């Protein structure tokens, strides 16, 4: 939905085709946009189903102490004022951009604290007459009188985000209900639109990453470690990836599979990803209509509409940053292969299983049922071998038993657990007698393209490295 003439529906100035079909080649599912009040009950129900841990509402972490072998936390139940002390081995501060846990540790946020100033205007309005049968997620409004983003929140609920510029004498208090009503009607292009205004909230974009992701027994995750512009919609995704990386390592340490030093790889692997994504979102912001730097620099609103209304060509196509994010750490066993080269490192994703990469999606079949390789990876290590890779599976089972670390094994190909034709070996870069070892977070820890003389020794080494018991020399590649 672009700028519209008064009182009449006008066609969008332009549009961008969805990459859904391409994304479905890389994933067994597809993305969607949803509001927080819909997502959170789903996550809560799943958390209650999966874990016996307590989930408490209206409870504040008042303080904590790091001791030699544990954390002592003080909790306060806000409605009753009841105080309780809890002893834990580790603490994760996933407590948002203004993280009290991060502040208590004295960890700074580095980067740009203000990129642009915005105001969120929540409202209800029936726009079905103008939207028609079009599916709308987000619209860039390029009306000369007002610039911003219009987002659909389901039903008749919408959100308009307007930019304002303090260097031009504009302030949050300027956004009175009367002014916001005018902005919404101008943005939609319907002067007499019936609008029910909701919350009006000023905020600012930032590009910040924590200087450290942990301090001894306390770890930070999500917005506590990275504060990025929502221009791309990756903040929640990056936060979930943080915890996915950290959770299996904490479990491995707590279950005695790994030494505490394994946890150091959390920052090594996740911090570079956070910096890249934060920088990318800042670039996206700089190309939006109405956006400007905090110091009053160049504004996208000063550019011709044909150049500004869609933002950067990479925006909403950051496929390689999402699917192709790779880790380079001492808990990844290099196989001597070079990183896969692509024309555009932001948009162009080439599925591959080079160690340190996310294990790619390939459809598998068994007895007429189709599942994704992604469905094989869960809470344990998984060894996946080709049709002639039974020796790898046998070795993995023996290593699992001897080291007390669960390893699931699957053989793909004729006579194996699943069939995938040649697609699996081609995508994963192995022969029919090759194998890969995948971590519980779905990342490839080790790959051997073809059978080696001693599968047992190779699997033992791979598992020890993945769990931080052993360090291998990192092979330099071009």
Describe this structure in words.
The protein is built from 12 helices and 18 strands. With 478 residues, the protein is α+β, with helices and mostly antiparallel strands. The chain has a domain at 318-478: Glutaredoxin (3-Layer(aba) Sandwich), CATH 3.40.30.120. The strands form 5 sheets. It has a 6-stranded antiparallel beta sheet with strand order 6-7-8-5-9-12, sandwiched between helices. Strands 16-15-17-18 form a 4-stranded mixed beta sheet, with helices on one face. Strand 15 (381-385), helix 10 (390-403) and strand 16 (407-411) form a beta-alpha-beta unit. 26% of the residues lie in helices and 22% in strands.
CATH architecture title of one domain: 3-Layer(aba) Sandwich
CATH fold title of one domain: Glutaredoxin
Q: Give the number of DSSP strands.
A: 18
The CATH class assignment of one domain is Alpha Beta
- The gyration radius over C-alpha positions equals 25 Å
N-to-C span: 46 Å
Strand content: 15-25%
Main sheet record: 6 strands, antiparallel
Summarize the structure.
The protein has 478 residues and is an alpha+beta fold.
Topology:
Layout: H1 20-24, H2 36-50, E1 59-66, E2 71-77, E3 82-88, E4 91-93, H3 100-105, E5 109-124, H4 128-131, E6 138-141, E7 148-152, E8 157-164, H5 177-188, E9 196-210, E10 214-215, E11 218-220, E12 226-227, H6 235-254, H7 265-286, H8 305-308, H9 319-323, E13 363-366, E14 369-372, E15 381-385, H10 390-403, E16 407-411, H11 423-428, E17 435-438, E18 444-448, H12 455-466
Helix pairs in contact: 6-7, 10-12
């Amino acid at each position: 939905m672009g700028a519209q003439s008064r009182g009449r529906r006008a066609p969008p100035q332009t549009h961008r085709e969805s990459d859904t079909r391409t994304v479905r080649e890389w994933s067994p599912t597809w993305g969607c946009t949803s509001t927080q009040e819909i997502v959170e009950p789903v996550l809560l129900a799943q958390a209650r189903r999966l874990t016996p841990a307590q989930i408490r509402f209206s409870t504040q972490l008042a303080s904590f102490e790091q001791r030699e072998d544990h954390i002592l936390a003080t909790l306060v139940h806000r409605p009753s004022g009841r105080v309780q002390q809890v002893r834990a081995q580790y603490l994760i501060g996933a407590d948002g951009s203004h993280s009290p846990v991060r502040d208590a540790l004295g960890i700074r946020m580095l980067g740009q604290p203000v990129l642009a100033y915005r105001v969120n205007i929540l409202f209800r309005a029936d726009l079905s007459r103008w939207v028609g049968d079009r599916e709308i997620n987000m619209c860039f409004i390029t009306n000369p009188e007002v610039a911003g983003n219009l987002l659909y929140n389901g039903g008749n609920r919408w959100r308009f985000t307007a930019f304002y510029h303090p260097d031009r004498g504009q302030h949050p208090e300027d956004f009175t209900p009367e002014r916001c009503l005018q902005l919404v009607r101008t943005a939609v292009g319907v002067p007499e639109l019936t609008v029910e205004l909701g919350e009006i909230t000023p905020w600012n974009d930032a590009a910040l990453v924590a200087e450290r992701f942990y301090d001894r027994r306390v770890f930070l995750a999500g917005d506590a470690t990275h504060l990025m512009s929502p221009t791309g919609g990756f903040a929640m995704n990056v936060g979930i990836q943080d915890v996915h990386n950290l959770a299996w390592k904490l479990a491995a340490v707590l279950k005695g599979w790994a030494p505490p030093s394994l946890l150091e790889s959390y920052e090594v692997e996740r911090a570079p990803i956070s910096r890249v994504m934060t920088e990318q979102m800042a670039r996206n912001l700089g190309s939006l209509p109405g956006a400007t730097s905090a110091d009053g620099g160049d504004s996208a609103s000063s550019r011709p509409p044909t150049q500004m209304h869609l933002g950067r060509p990479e925006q909403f196509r950051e496929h390689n940053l999402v699917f192709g994010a790779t880790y380079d750490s001492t808990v990844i066993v290099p196989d001597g292969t070079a990183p896969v080269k692509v024309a555009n490192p932001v948009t162009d994703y080439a599925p591959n299983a080079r160690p340190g990469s996310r294990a790619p999606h390939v459809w598998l079949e068994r007895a007429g049922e189709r599942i994704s390789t992604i469905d094989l990876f869960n809470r344990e290590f998984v060894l996946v071998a080709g049709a002639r890779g039974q020796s790898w599976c046998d070795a993995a089972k023996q290593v699992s038993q001897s080291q007390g670390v669960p390893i699931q094994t699957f053989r793909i190909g004729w006579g194996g657990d699943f069939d995938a034709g040649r697609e699996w070996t081609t995508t994963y870069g192995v022969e029919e007698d090759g194998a890969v070892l995948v971590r519980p977070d779905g990342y490839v820890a080790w790959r051997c393209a073809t059978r080696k003389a001693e599968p047992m020794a190779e699997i033992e080494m791979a598992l020890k490295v993945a769990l931080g018991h052993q360090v291998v020399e990192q092979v330099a590649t071009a």
